[in-house]
Amino acid sequence: MAGVEAIDKLTHQLSRLPGIGRKTAQRLAFHIVAQPEEDVRELAVTIFNAKKQVHVCPVCGNLTDREICSVCADPSRSRDTVCVVKDARDVNALERIRDYNGLYHVLGGVISPMDGVGPDDIRIRELMSRLAEGEIKEVVLATNPDVEGEATAAYISRLIKPMGIKVTRIAHGVPVGGELEYTDEITLMRAFQGRREL
After folding, report:
1. Using one digit for the tens of pLDDT, what is the confidence trace for 3-29?
2. Which three-class secondary structure state does DSSP give residue 174?
3. pTM above 0.90, yes or no
4. CATH number where 179 lies
5. CB 3.0 to 4.6 Å from 102: which of 78, 107, 137, 176, for a disulfide?
């Protein structure tokens, strides 16, 4: 906005957030400056405190503001199954279904040679250390069904198989409400591979 450098700077900072384009950032900037000063201060303090207090759980790699995350600290969770995911957002997604009662292991990324990310750049070593303790009987690989997610799952599976631990992969297929006509070939192939008896 011409002549209001502070709004331009705020708009620029907001537009750096994922999913926020320039117009949305500008709308948010105008909304923020129109709010009471106390509300704006509370927003700024909340953002700062979240950044300062949230850290990676030393056990699983999930995000937490406690010593260990709520999943790892929950004694009612099954200790013999661990679900391997790319990041903390995936933990949140899986927790919403309320059907999984095991533990998690957050990799903090996926193997992506094009982006210069190899196995040593994500938390595979930490996963192997957890598995070596002998309590885990099944590893569920729940990385995304894209090239990097599939490569990461295949790599981890090859490492785990010799340990005698069961390795499973979440099923991928046609979404509920989807139409076969508009479904891509890879998704249809996965749907056939993951079919089950009724």
Report:
1. 589 999 999 999 999 999 999 999 999
2. coil
3. no
4. 3.40.1360.10
5. 78
